[in-house]
Amino acid sequence: MEQPNLDYLNQIADGQPDVIAQFLGIIAQEFPGEAERYFSLIEEKDSIKAAAIVHKLKHKISILGLVQGRALAIAHEEALKIEDYQHTDAFAVVLKQIDEFLKSN
Amino acid sequence: MKSIIIDDETMARAIIDQLCQQTDDIEVVAQFDNAIEAIKYINKNEVDVIFLDIHMPTFSGFDFLDTVTKDLQVILTTSDPKFAIEAFEYPRIKDYLVKPVTLPRFLKMVEKLKKQPEKSNAPAPVAQKDLSANQGKELYINIDRRLIKIAFDQIFLIEAKGDYILIKTHDKNYTVHSTLKKIEDKLPQSQFIKVHRSYVINFTKIVDIEDNSVLIERDVIPISRSNRPELMKRLNLL
């Protein structure tokens, strides 16, 4: 199973630790709130608004190198637009992975 | 080249900013989390390049392009490759970067920008429409497998909302899975007019027009520069 990583951020930051830390700081600041909002919207069955949050999360997922996670986010976003919740459980696993990664970095 | 970044996501702005720092050719002079503030800035300051996100709440990147006609080079930044075809409709769009943007791809874009000839940006001519089309009195919309009849006279505006449209009538609002283009083709062109990328209005329901907005019932709707000439032509001005 793929794991979140800093490969992309290393490339963008040209290996500068302070720049990588700055990027991680932004993700760490925004991710918990977005994830929480997403789970609330899923619970409220507001699939259109949930799709919009998935769209935002998708970028963070790709930044953290999760290629399969990004593909899942794309499928989930499109499915939610037509009130299809089939990818909800799998997507929750990706969010949990990121949450754990951010807590350990 | 002086550039600005318009993106509602902090992370996306930070990445473009960082990428710009890795080249001597582009300087980021301002960043905005919404397009409206960016328009105010552009009106007062000189800008050569705009990094523009498409997906933004209330005022999208395409809304921005429909509103601003200033001589600018635009680089679209988006997570959705599906908008690429639509992007070709705008001559000002010089490149299309899919997020997450990599350094090699970014540098390729910079080279492309440097090779661009001098900027040119004449607004597109407004097409003449066949005003005799669709002279019926109503249309049917499909909601939960029910076909609901709506009289044209009852509709005062239609708003594009992603993959959906919102039809506002005197009694009720309807959200339908469709596009503005599709419903526009079904409406009588003598009665309805597109005033903005995201809005078609019932011409007969206009209360007043002020600068770049029109009041329809209680809704204030923006008028894009490209749609304004056709609207003004239709007014029975004293």
Name some characteristics of this structure.
heterodimer; A: 105 residues; mainly alpha; 5 helices; 78% helix; B: 238 residues; alpha/beta; Rossmann fold; OB fold (Dihydrolipoamide Acetyltransferase, E2P); 2 domains; five-stranded parallel beta sheet; five-stranded antiparallel beta sheet; 7 helices; elongated
State the share of residues found in helices of chain A, binned by percent. Answer: over 70%
Let me know the number of strands of chain A: 0
> Strand portion of chain A, in percent?
under 5%
Name the helicity range of chain B: 10-25%
- Low-confidence runs of chain B (pLDDT<50, min 5 residues)? 120-134
Largest interface: A-B, 21 and 19 residues
The helix/strand class of chain A is mainly alpha
Average of per-residue pLDDT values of chain A: 93
N-to-C span of chain B: 47 Å
Major beta sheet summary of chain A:
none
Return the CATH class of the largest domain in chain B.
Answer: Alpha Beta
Strand percent estimate of chain B: 25-35%
Count of discrete domains of chain B: 2
Number of strands of chain B: 15
Radius of gyration of chain A: 14 Å
Enumerate the spans of chain A where pLDDT stays under 50 for 5 or more consecutive residues: none
Task: Tell me the number of helical segments of chain B per DSSP (H or I, 4 or more residues long).
Answer: 7
CATH architecture of the largest domain in chain B: 3-Layer(aba) Sandwich
CATH superfamily descriptor of the largest domain in chain B: Response regulator
Topology:
The complex is a heterodimer of chains A (105) and B (238).
Chain A: H1 7-12, H2 17-43, H3 47-63, H4 67-81, H5 88-104
Chain B: E1 2-6, H1 10-21, E2 27-32, H2 35-44, E3 49-53, H3 61-67, E4 73-78, H4 84-87, E5 93-98, H5 103-114, E6 138-143, E7 146-151, E8 155-161, E9 164-169, E10 173-176, H6 180-186, E11 192-196, E12 199-202, E13 206-210, E14 213-216, E15 219-222, H7 228-234
Parallel strand pairs in B: 1-2, 1-3, 3-4, 4-5
Antiparallel strand pairs in B: 6-7, 8-9, 8-12, 9-10, 11-12, 13-14, 14-15
